[in-house]
Amino acid sequence: MEADRSDAPQPTPTAPRVPQLGPYQIIDEIGRGGMGVVMRARDPALKREVAIKILRPESYAKPHRRMRFVREAQITGQLEHPGVVPVHFLGRNQAGQEFFAMKLVRGRTLEEVMAPKGSPVRARRLSIFERVCETVAFAHANRILHRDLKPANISVGAHGEVWVLDWGLAKHLDTPDEAPTADEIDDADDASEAASPATPAGPSARRSTTRTGSTLKVTQAGRVLGTPEYMAPEQASGEPVDERADVYALGALLYHLLVGTPPCVGKDTRDTIRLVAKGRIVDIRSRAGGTRLPRELVAMVRCCLS
Fold first, then answer.
1. pLDDT at residue 6 in the model
2. 3-state secondary structure of 269
3. What does pTM read for this prediction?
4. Is 7 a catalytic residue?
5. Nearest to 237, CA basis, from 291, 277, 196, 294
6. Are 220 and 95 found together in one domain?
7. For residue 35, what are the CA distances in angstroms to 51, 57, 101, 153, 265?
8. How far is Cα 249 from Cα 136, in angstroms, rounded to an integer?
9. Which secondary structure element, helix H or strand E, spans residue 102, and what is its range?
């Protein structure tokens, strides 16, 4: 007959192991892009939540992506401004993958804010735009270009905060433009096969590849990074850019805020890049319809896009 073991000491249950990344405890995934994954995590030392960005495994295998990822963390960390999300830590996990921790921003992108028809009102949109301009001006004063300004890269908080996000394509003006690597050309080729019509074959065909979203275009003349609808013509043509490219993007953003569409939208990504490179934009008055636009704002848009 077996002895009654009801009074025997029971093993103490162990708490489930929390995934760890450096000193941070991973909570869940917030989102992912072409190169990286953003996760919500807890900083046990300071007892606060943070956002963690880490490269996806397939990106980790490509040196140019790792370099761009580290540069994003360093540039963002150097821009100490209310309109730039602070970076708290840059390091590697046990496998050697780079990651960085930053302030957890709670808000909606400007793209999401603008989605409901008639929202927000023009005064609020202009206030947001002004804050974006202040942030970009601060970056330019520190010799930094953003190169991918668009509604999806602007976050609006519940208490009026405005942040310029995603400095992954940012460039220091004192750093020369890099020649495209074989990996970067391969990246663009792979994306182009899915997103764009086939490039004409033959020795006289121009090398042209594009990627939607955060668009990569490689040509014989050079390399373009950015989003076509907000790109300056020189950027779409693969030429070196300076602060004026960001100013153009601000003008395209203001255009969109005022009339609900960017100044140049083609049939597809390739067509948009072609139209932008040739400077074929629709004047804002033509797009306004019956909406009355202040002359000062129209003049500002035209000046930025000129």
1. 55
2. helix
3. 0.79
4. no
5. 277
6. no
7. 16, 9, 16, 16, 26
8. 11
9. strand 98-103
Buried/exposed code over 247-280 (b: 16+ C-beta within 10 A; e: otherwise): bbbbbbbbbbbbbeebbbeeeebbebbbbbbeee
Q: Is 202 contained in some domain?
A: no
Encoding tokens for residue 140?
């330019």
Q: How far apart are CA 262 and CA 277, in angstroms?
A: 15
Task: State pLDDT tens for residues 251-291.
Answer: 999 999 999 899 999 899 999 999 999 988 889 998 887 77
Q: Could you tell me the CATH number of the domain that includes residue 145?
A: 1.10.510.10
User: What Cα–Cα distance (Å) separates residue 118 from each residue in 158, 210, 258?
Assistant: 18, 33, 11
* 168 and 29 belong to one structural domain: no
* 276 is a domain residue: yes
Domain closes at, from 73, 103, 133:
103
Q: What is the pLDDT of residues 25-50, one digit of tens each?
A: 999 999 887 778 999 999 999 999 99
Residues 213 and 70 in one domain: no
| Tokens standing for residue 186 | 């391969």
List the structure tokens of 299. 């003049």
Q: How many domains does the chain have?
A: 2
3-state secondary structure of 165: coil
The catalytic residue among 43, 148, 166, 187 is: 148
Residue 34 shares a structural domain with residue 164: no
Domain of 33, in residue numbers = 20-103
10 within some domain: no
